[in-house]
Amino acid sequence: MSYLRFGAMILTSTVVMFVLMYLNTYAWEHVFYSETRTYMAILMGATMAVVMLAFMLGMYSSRRLNIAIFAGAVIVFALSLWLVRSQVTVSGPSYMSAMIPHHSIAVMTSERAQIRDPRVRKLADEIIAAQRREIAEMRYLIAEVSRGDTVAEIYEDPAAEAGTLDDALANTLLAELDPAPMPAAEADRLLGEGARCAFNRSPETDPILWASRDGGSGAMKLNGVLIALEGTGDAAAGDATFEVPGLTMTVRPLGDEADWRSDAELIFALEEGPTVGYRGFYSCAAG
User: Fold this and answer.
1) What stretches pass through the bilayer (predicted)?
2) What average pLDDT does range 9-21 have in this prediction?
């Protein structure tokens, strides 16, 4: 067997291993290129080169080339391992592109594991909700940061103070608030039945914003409370703003930026709290 054939075999195996690392993502829209996975695939390819050559030394007669392959594989392994663990080449967008498929794995395993204990099921459901929310937020931030729209600071809750249990139970940390998925039955209580528009962070979850097709009203859930919103704009076209004093939710279509991963974005802003963006899916029922 020629050394060129050996090299082609290792290269092909490395590419195949990189692709296989995405097969445990939950949904195709969660597939993003990951620098870290690239380094891991190269690391595994270097390991495979050492193992396979060691088992097939009798098929390769050049002692000098064999030593060079072993030495090169060790160097590539060490460099790849350093890149994986140091993350020295990973920027903000690259970090999030790697985290989205990582989060997707957590969604897949948490949803499909055969869990019987209700405590574990509750934990798994909380993981699913958190990961889906963060995936939608990262999709938004990847676009923002990639085009240079960075910020100097973000909202942070006040420092903790001494108090009682009652104080703790009454204290709402604004930085930890985010719109919660809202089933259609809950939206019916505020908007009534009929054709509506909705923004979903993920196709598998309930919307975090419901809106009447005329854009005059909307509904959301925050901190366990159903909130009716007043709207302006063209909700049917996905370009509208919904608000109450102290809170604004703005949805807009992505236009040319839309793809199979997302077609709209929503900005959730508390007047005296955080502003968070999500990319997801906006649709309107016929009627």
Assistant:
1) 7-27, 39-58, 65-84
2) 96
Please give the Cα distance from 230 to 109 (Å, whole number). 39
Cβ distance 199 to 208 under 8 Å? yes
- Structure tokens given for 158: 């006040």
Contacts for 133 with CB less than 8 Å, ≥ 6 apart? 178, 201, 278
CA–CA gap between residue 213 and residue 287 (Å, rounded): 9
Alpha-carbon gap, residue 40 to 17, rounded angstroms: 9
Q: Which residues contact 169 (CB under 8 A, 6 or more apart)?
A: none
Q: Residue 249: what are its φ and ψ, rounded to 5°?
A: -125, 120
- Taking the model in full, what pTM does it have? 0.90
Check pLDDT > 60 for residue 258: yes
Assign 73 to helix, strand or coil. helix
Residue carrying the six token digits 């990262």 = 138
As to burial, measured by CB atoms within 10 angstroms (0-12 exposed, 13-18 middle, 19+ buried), residue 49 is buried
Kindly give the interhelix angle for 3-20 and 63-86, rounded to the nearest 10 degrees.
Answer: 20
CA distance 217 to 190: 9
**Which pLDDT does position 119 carry in this prediction?**
97
- Tokens coding 260: 């199979």
Backbone angles phi, psi at 198, to 5 degrees: -155, 150
Residues sharing a CB contact under 8 Å with residue 122, sequence separation 6 or more, in sequence order: none
